[in-house]
Amino acid sequence: MKSKKVFIITVFIGFIVISSGISVYGIKSQKSDLFTIVNVDDYYFIQITDTHVTHKLYDKYEIYKQNFIRVLKEINSFNEKPAFVVLTGDCVEWGGSDKTGENNYQALVSCLYKKNGQLYVDSDFCIPLYSTPGNHDYVPEKSLINYYNYMNRNNKYIREIGPASFFFMDSGSNYYLEPWDWTRVLGAGLYNADIEWLEEKLEKSEHLPLKIILMHHPAVNERDSFGVMFDVIARNSEEFINICDNYDIDLVLAGHTHDSIVYDRNENTYDNYPLLCSEHPTLFVQSDDCKQHVNYRNITVTSDDIIIHDSVRINFEPKNIRRIQSKYSGIYNLYIKTIFLLDKIKDI
């Protein structure tokens, strides 16, 4: 348990989340998985997750793309801009390596701006977007080729931004090795090499006081009627949670569940926002989706604490949205379910 930092309350009240200015200067290190941003005052960033963007060839009204655009417009309307945006997986409805996945990623990046290989959410190239892959980014061929080509060449990497280290990780494709787990929508999880990578990088990040891990699948979630957690990582779950304890991780940010909920490792839940990470053990945060519910989450970083805010839902009046979704989403949803079934059969 991390010690409480009493004076942060004063800082938080005076700061009011995003009132301070942000000064950002980037320095690329010699390691391909590390990018350090220095000279940053207190700042906030935004998490978006589960956008599931689909090309108009498969979604005539581009419903999920338009929902993503709604969030981006909201972000760009803020007087005080976020330092960056993170997209924690299921960027598209299906990604893989084929032409259909390529079309979906083209639809996604058409909402963004690109400069020197980096994606941004604004035309001034001031708000970078960092991402992790989700299980939908793998299907239908269990491949991230299209994700690598359009989103990010790395599936795990680090960003050091002000007082915080951000560890972006790949929680894997769908897990089908055990037939009784098929309905639990598990992620393949972290392989031993991923655990070794994380420990090595954490040991080298001791110079920064704050640590945040980002991946698509959560490590802690509710349990089904058999007492088994669902929607979590299948491999090395306990090892990962122990690392979070041992290295004093402040926060693990995830999506996947299309729900907004915060756990600790003992499955206690927290909803008394804003949450100060310094007052709790590692917090395992799930954020609600952008696909249908059109959510985003703000997180504030100060010199020695991280403040988690509740998910924000953008309210709008969609025209016949349910009728349109019902009429035009059925074909590609059937396609995805068929691919999932074939993928399961291959793994048996």
Describe this structure as you would to a colleague.
The protein has a single domain (8-347), classed as Metallo-dependent phosphatases (Purple Acid Phosphatase, chain A, domain 2, 4-Layer Sandwich). Helices cover 26% and strands 23% of the residues. It is built from nine helices and 19 strands. A nine-stranded mixed sheet has the order 1-2-8-9-11-13-17-14-15, with helices on one face. Strands 7-4-3-18-19-16 form a six-stranded mixed sheet, with no helix packed on it. A two-stranded antiparallel sheet has the order 5-6. A hairpin with a 4-residue loop joins β18 and β19 (306-313). The model is unreliable at 3-32 and 320-328 (pLDDT under 50).
Sum this structure up briefly.
The protein has 9 helices and 19 strands. It has 348 residues and is an alpha/beta fold.
By CATH, the superfamily comes out as: Metallo-dependent phosphatases
Helix content: 25-40%
Count of structural domains: 1
- CATH C-level class is Alpha Beta
CATH topology: Purple Acid Phosphatase, chain A, domain 2
> What's the CATH architecture?
4-Layer Sandwich
Q: What share of residues are in beta strands?
A: 15-25%
Calculate the terminal CA-CA distance, rounded to whole Å. Answer: 42 Å
Class inferred from helices and paired strands: alpha/beta
How would a textbook summarize the main sheet? 9 strands, mixed
List the helices and strands in order: HEEEHEHEEEHHEEEHEEHEEEEEEEHH
Strand order across the largest sheet: 1-2-8-9-11-13-17-14-15
Total helical segments: 9
Number of strands: 19
Q: What is the mean pLDDT?
A: 85
Give the uncertain stretches in residue-range form: 3-32, 320-328
Q: Kindly provide the radius of gyration, computed on alpha-carbon positions and rounded to a whole number of angstroms.
A: 19 Å
Question: What is the general shape?
Answer: globular
